[in-house]
Design goal:
heterodimer, A: 278 residues, mainly alpha, 2 strands, globular, B: 352 residues, alpha/beta, Rossmann fold, Alpha-Beta Plaits, 6-stranded mixed β-sheet, 4-stranded antiparallel β-sheet, 14 strands, 30% strand
């Protein structure tokens, strides 16, 4: 555990240095992100009457905010899983992965710390973007600190568990990296369009949707941030919502499966002689 | 006690290929399985304060050996010990005692400066606080990068990056340093600087250093002992002076106008071997002479005399400069070349 915090501290300093050194890139990233979301929203709401009509049929006054939040959660999922796939490939190419493998704390601890810091950075910048976009288009976000933090934490464990599993496979089967791009797109799309309505499907589809690491996270976060934990004007806590239990279950499942697969694959790649190479 | 010990270590790699093109026939095969021997009964040890050189062609198993010592590759059988700790059962202890510079990798983080790199990697290797800062500065001083400590790595020259890689390997003050082709691609000046620092560090600080190289000059200048590895087999392991003996100019080439049986020269005192070779300008009589200087001189005169007696006209005489290839041929009985199979070793230079 001490190792995790030491690595996390080193990673935090590294990220801060890079952000400070490339401040222009950081700033333009935020501005471009904001601009892109605004263009998308404008496209959906003002230039596409049919889409607007479709959205209005869902009787959702915060359609734009809903979309933006979904987009941000999708980007987050896309980024976290990508950190394990594209990240591993990039680090292997530059030789940094070999150095991480040579750390006495082990590859798992190093990756856990890296993703943790990257997630915090992502959540902070994404949060800022959501707020700015929501404020611009007149949407309202209901910020309820404890539920939001709990949900973000569970989402994090869902995604890193899934990321560890895919990353572990990438250590051995290099082609998985390309398949993971499709998986990331699926997660992204799911986060954007995740609503409770999509769970009204036959049970195999419903089960698959529940087991994917982002569906319940997106539904829960939208429920808290957009609907303000209200059903027909009545307050109903997120902690009583069925999707929340699925999120908890998935968090445990993916973390366990992800870490187990990653360790197993790390061990196997030592036997195969491919640890640290790509 | 030896700081590094390899005892009967074996490693085979199996590689699987789908739809791979055959280099010879240019046809694609649906499935191809290769088996490569990267280490076969490798046994050697390195003492504190010693530089051990592992020589061999590309794909011989040098990088795999380094990776087995640094726990990146698991041996199939045998035992690898670092400071008495088993690389399989006590991986964490081993990793805290080993510093590695692998060939062909960037290692350092280019957006950061050398100082920031050292602080980052030091933290990953459990070096903290004031000790870490002090050691980072000391290493930059030692290697001669103090004036570049705040320059981004991407702006440094290749030699400076390699020096930084060495500092990164040393940041946890390891007892064992593993260097895979440390001077490959460097200019003479940078290569010289790195070799000097390695010598200084090993002698003064009592580390055990393993250097892999296919450059005989590096081995000659640096190493106390040398192992020659080919196709995963340690073909020779001896102190450098003994190996240099193999390289000494004991073969003389006599360019003559015609050939006579080579065994006509074997009875000359001091002549060990004699054989004919086809040179660009005619026949060459190659004669290997004894190592002893006085006897060698007599043998040389004796051979010239014999040529005259046999009625051969001596056109030219040359002392052969041995290369790693010829010594390798003599030791292993095989030419020093990289086979396709060897280059496919997953951990070897072929893929790294």
């Amino acid at each position: 555990m001490r190792g995790f915090f030491l690595v996390m501290k080193a990673e935090l300093i590294r990220v801060f240095i890079v952000m400070r050194r490339y401040w222009f890139r950081t700033l333009t990233g935020l501005i471009i992100g904001y601009g892109m979301l605004m263009v998308l929203i404008a496209g959906f709401i003002y230039s596409r009457p049919m889409v607007q009509e479709g959205l209005s049929r869902l009787d959702d006054p915060g359609a734009a905010t809903n979309f933006v939040l979904g987009f941000i959660i999708g980007m987050y999922a896309f980024g976290v899983v990508g950190m394990f796939t594209q990240g591993i490939q990039g680090m292997a190419t530059t030789g940094v992965l070999e150095q991480l493998c040579l750390s006495p704390y082990g590859l798992t601890t190093n990756f856990l710390a890296q993703t943790f810091i990257a997630s915090i950075t992502s959540i902070l910048s994404s949060g800022l973007m959501v707020y700015l976009v929501s404020w611009t288009v007149g949407g309202v976000l209901h910020w309820d600190t404890i539920p939001v933090l709990v949900l973000l934490g569970l989402t994090f464990f869902n995604l890193i568990g899934f990321g560890f599993m895919v990353g572990g496979l990438v250590l051995i089967f290099k082609q998985v990296g390309q398949v993971a791009v499709i998986l990331r797109m699926v997660l992204f799309g799911l986060a954007v369009f995740a609503r409770e309505e999509i769970l009204n499907n036959p049970w195999p589809v419903r089960l698959t949707l529940h087991l994917l690491p982002v569906t319940d996270a997106a539904i829960c976060l939208k429920y808290v941030l957009i609907q303000g934990q209200q059903v027909d004007g009545q307050f109903q806590s997120i902690f009583l919502h069925p999707c929340f239990y699925w999120l908890v279950f998935n968090g445990c499942l993916w973390t366990f499966v992800g870490l187990a697969v990653f360790r197993w694959m790390e061990d196997y790649s030592r036997t195969k002689g491919t640890l640290g190479t790509y | 006690m030896a700081l590094v010990e390899l005892i009967n270590v074996n490693k085979h790699f199996r590689t699987h290929h789908l739809l791979q093109q055959d280099e010879m026939t240019r046809r694609r095969r649906l499935y191809k399985r290769n088996e490569v021997t990267a280490a076969q009964n490798i046994t050697f040890s390195i003492e504190p304060g010693e530089i051990f050189g592992l020589l061999g062609p590309n794909g011989a198993g040098k990088t795999t050996t380094v990776k087995m010592i640094s726990t990146l590759v698991r041996p199939d059988s045998g035992q690898v010990l670092v400071d008495g700790f088993d690389t399989e059962r006590q991986r964490r202890e081993v990793l805290s005692r080993v510093g590695v510079v692998l060939e062909g990798t960037r290692t350092s983080l280019w957006p950061l400066t050398p100082l920031e790199n050292l602080l980052y990697y030091g933290a990953l290797k459990n070096v903290r606080g004031r000790v870490l800062k002090q050691r980072a500065h000391d290493l930059l001083d030692f290697i001669g990068l103090q004036d570049k400590k705040n320059v981004q790595v991407r702006k440094l020259s290749r030699g400076q990056k390699q020096k930084l890689a060495l500092c990164i390997a040393l940041i946890a003050d390891p007892k064992v340093l593993l260097l895979d082709e440390p001077t490959t691609g460097l200019d003479v000046q940078s290569s010289r600087a790195i070799k000097d620092k390695l010598l200084e560090m090993t002698r003064d600080q009592g580390r055990a250093v393993l250097v892999t190289t296919h450059d005989m000059h590096v081995a000659q200048e640096l190493c106390d002992r040398v192992g020659i590895i080919n196709r995963g087999r340690l073909a020779a392991c001896m102190p450098t002076p003994e190996l240099l003996e193999q390289f000494s100019g004991r073969v003389f080439e006599f360019r003559v106008d015609r050939e006579v049986p080579a065994d006509r020269f074997l009875d000359i005192p001091g002549v060990l071997e004699a054989w004919w070779e086809k040179g660009a300008e005619g026949s060459l009589l190659a004669v290997r002479l004894t190592a002893d200087d006085a006897s060698r001189s007599d043998a040389l005169y004796g051979t010239v005399e014999r040529l005259r007696t046999l009625g051969l006209r001596l056109i030219g005489l040359n002392q052969r400069r041995e290369t790693l290839e010829t010594v390798f041929l003599r030791i292993t009985g095989e030419p020093m070349e990289t086979s396709d199979e060897e280059a496919e070793t997953p951990s070897g230079t072929g893929e790294s």
